[in-house]
Design brief:
The complex is a heterodimer of chains A (456) and B (161).
Chain A lengths: L16 H19 L4 H14 L5 H6 L7 H17 L4 H12 L4 H18 L2 H19 L3 H16 L7 H10 L3 H7 L1 H19 L7 H9 L9 H24 L3 H16 L4 H6 L3 H20 L1 H13 L3 H18 L2 H19 L5 H5 L5 H14 L8 H12 L6 H29 L2
Helix pairs in contact in A: 1-2, 1-16, 2-16, 4-14, 5-6, 5-7, 6-7, 6-8, 6-11, 7-8, 7-22, 8-22, 8-23, 9-19, 9-21, 11-23, 13-14, 16-19, 17-18, 17-19, 18-21, 18-23, 19-21, 21-23
Chain B lengths: L2 H4 L1 E2 L10 H10 L10 E5 L5 E6 H8 L6 H4 L6 H9 L4 H4 L7 E2 L4 H11 L3 E5 L5 E6 H12 L10
Classes of the chains: A mainly alpha (456), B alpha+beta (161).
């Protein structure tokens, strides 16, 4: 990796005006984002433009340097995956899967809840969480109406399952995409290190659902018939495009599995998939597909990368990493536990994207402090640093369950439920989310401790 | 010709706290001059101000669950329409009315009325006087009838023109 001189070591660091400017811009922007007074994308773009206008970063640094600038690997991975999903969505595959699952559950409310939790988790691991809940929530509301049961527990369970499932893979959740890009981790690294933990969490999550909802969810047999009479095959509107989409999705997944070995970045794999599916779709109007990409999310990332880049350049991030090391006195197990729990709590309160954007350079800086003799991959994937990356990923992803605004999937579910006349209050969400967050982070803690410290 | 020349005076209104079923009965009982029930009525609050409009489309819209889309309605069950209608029975006019009603001044030419109705997909336009008070309604059918009269001026006995 390129190594540009990062500000100055602490002893010699001069806290000049750019230091305060960079920090001021970032933390004021963060406060405005939390207050929701101005749309977060606008805040991020304006904040980033200030970083450039005030010459905290040169434009060249913001656009072209790996250390300070926009992480194009993240941007193009998101764009590629969003394009693929936008092309797949109209085929009806997701409605098919949902209706099929409800029928596999024989119309039984508890079984449907469990099956939906599992498919949400699996889909969220392979696609993004927002898309998964956007596609499944309407079907869930329909099925709940058909069974005459309260849809709220189903919707909350789906949001929680999507955040747990998204933790499992590199492409499952934005924090993982960002961490993978910074730490140069590949898809299989995540499968080997995080997927087992997520499987354990899902098993326990499902046991809890059974325990908690086992006696509460009831329906009548004639209502179950409504589900059994639905013909999921009617959902498939374009079988030819569906076949093409599945082939491309298969190619992309195989690409992800082997990208590390073949020395491709994940973004290359996603862009190849997007390009291939656009070509195969035979569309003459790509602007429809491209317009559906969530540009506000993309520009939110771009803005944040530049604002955080400014803080890296002025040395604010290294200052924070030294504070962190001082706090844990260089004990790496303690550091990883602090990072995991702090990430979880922080992600429940703040958007986890700016959080991880800040933590990534902080972790790298910490590694530089600890192992000054190493650089490049040896530094980024130092054996003792790996549990810290995993702790960050686990904390930031699972923390999203802690509140109704902790993750985008939660916000979507709450919004859709309210529109359908079932208001989910902030506290109601937390009544489910907080225990699940604590239980899953606790499992993550035990997992990291056992796998990387006690049994290592 | 102007709006005031084709408008129908209104003397019956709905109120925001009226249950939907009562609004339906009211609408059924108010007949247009062609003898069919009216398809939309204005809503007036206690202070006598017009606060919205309810049409048969708004009542139909209220029955559709927010999550439904053409992709999903194929999975509806046999009596879903009945179930969903029962769910809205206790809702009131204020919940389902259109709040930002497009109105026109009585002096507005019919060309403007026609343009507004087609471009904004409106079936009826409340007409206001100089004090901004609603005095009548221009219905799409009435404007169409005027256009149809112009078009058929040379109409012959055998139905050609």
């Amino acid at each position: 990796m390129e190594h540009v001189e990062t500000a100055h070591a602490v002893g010699t660091m001069v806290m000049d005006s750019t230091f305060y400017l960079a920090c001021g811009i970032f933390f004021i922007a963060l406060a405005i984002i939390i207050s929701e007074k101005i749309h977060k994308t606008i805040v991020a773009i304006f904040g980033a433009s200030l970083v450039l206008v005030l010459k905290i970063l040169e434009q060249h640094e913001a656009f072209h340097l790996e250390e300070f600038g926009v992480d194009w690997n993240v941007i193009f991975l998101l764009i590629g995956m969003m394009t693929i999903i936008n092309l797949m969505r109209p085929t009806g595959l997701f409605e098919y899967i949902a209706i099929r699952s409800a029928k596999v559950g024989k119309g039984d409310p508890l079984r449907i809840m469990v099956i939906f939790a599992v498919i949400t988790a699996v889909l969220s691991a392979l696609l993004d969480n927002v898309t998964t809940v956007l596609l499944l929530a309407p079907v869930t509301l329909l099925i709940a109406d058909a069974l005459e049961v309260d849809p709220i527990p189903y919707l909350i369970v789906e949001a929680l399952a999507s955040n747990i499932g998204g933790t499992a893979t590199l492409i499952g959740d934005p924090p993982n995409i960002m961490i993978a890009s910074k730490a140069k981790l590949n898809f299989m690294d995540f499968i080997i290190h995080l997927t087992p933990a997520v499987i354990i969490m899902m098993v326990i999550f499902i046991l809890l659902l059974k325990l908690f909802f086992g006696k509460r969810l009831k329906t009548r047999d004639e209502l179950k018939e409504r589900i059994m009479k639905m013909d999921e095959r009617e959902a498939i509107k374009d079988p030819v495009m569906l076949t093409k989409s599945l082939v491309v999705l298969g190619v992309v997944l195989v690409g992800f599995i082997f990208h590390g070995m073949l020395h491709y970045e994940p973004a290359t794999v996603a862009l190849f998939g997007a390009g291939l599916l656009l070509l195969l779709s035979g569309t003459h109007e790509p602007h429809h597909v491209l317009a559906e990409i969530e540009w506000p999310v993309i520009f939110f990332f771009i803005g944040l990368f530049i604002m955080v880049g400014g803080m890296v350049k002025v040395g604010a991030i290294s200052l924070m990493s030294q504070k962190m090391l001082a706090l844990t006195q260089g004990n790496l197990f303690a550091t990883s536990m602090v990072i995991m729990w702090f990430s979880a709590i922080a992600s429940a309160v703040v958007d986890n994207i700016p959080y991880v954007a800040t933590m990534n350079p902080l972790v790298i800086d910490m590694a530089r402090e600890l192992w000054p003799e190493h650089s490049g991959m040896e530094l980024l994937q130092h054996a003792e640093l790996m549990p810290i990356w995993w702790s960050l990923a686990l904390g930031a992803c699972l923390g999203g369950n802690g509140s109704a605004i902790g993750a985008s999937a939660n916000v979507i579910v709450v919004g859709m439920s309210e529109k359908a006349g079932h208001k989910i209050s902030f506290l109601k969400f937390m009544a489910y989310g907080v225990p699940v967050m604590f239980i899953t982070v606790f499992i993550a803690m035990i997992y990291v401790w056992l796998r990387y410290y006690a049994l290592a | 010709m102007k709006a005031k020349d084709v408008m129908t005076p209104i003397d019956e209104y709905l109120s925001p706290d009226m249950p939907i079923c009562e609004a339906v009965i009211r609408m059924r009982n108010v007949k247009r001059q062609h003898g069919l029930p009216i398809k939309g009525m204005l809503v007036k609050n206690e202070q006598g101000a017009v606060v919205g409009m309810v049409s048969i489309k708004d009542i139909m819209r209220a029955v559709i669950p927010s999550y439904l889309s053409p992709d999903l309605s194929i999975f509806s069950w046999e009596n879903m329409l009945e179930d969903m209608t029962n769910k809205v029975k206790d809702r009131v006019v204020g919940d389902i009315m259109v709040k930002d009603v497009v109105t026109i001044d009585s002096e507005v030419p019919l060309m403007v009325c026609t343009d507004l109705m087609i471009k904004k997909g409106l079936q009826r336009l409340p007409v206001t006087d100089e004090k901004k008070e609603v005095i009548g309604m221009v219905y799409i059918r009435d404007i169409y009838n005027i256009i149809a009269d112009f078009l058929t001026e040379g109409e012959k006995e055998d139905g050609t023109c």
